[in-house]
Amino acid sequence: MKTILWYVHDPMCSWCWGFRRNWLRIQHELPESVVVKRLVGGLAPDSDEPMPSDMRMQIERIWHQIVKKTGAQFNFDFWQKNTPYRSTYPACRAVIAAAWQGKEQEMIEAIQRAYYLDADNPSLLETLVRCAKQINLDVDRFQEDIGSDELQHEFLEQLKFARNMGANSFPSLFLQQDDAIFEIPVSYSNKDVVLDEIK
Question: Is the full-model pTM beyond 0.85?
Answer without folding.
Answer: yes
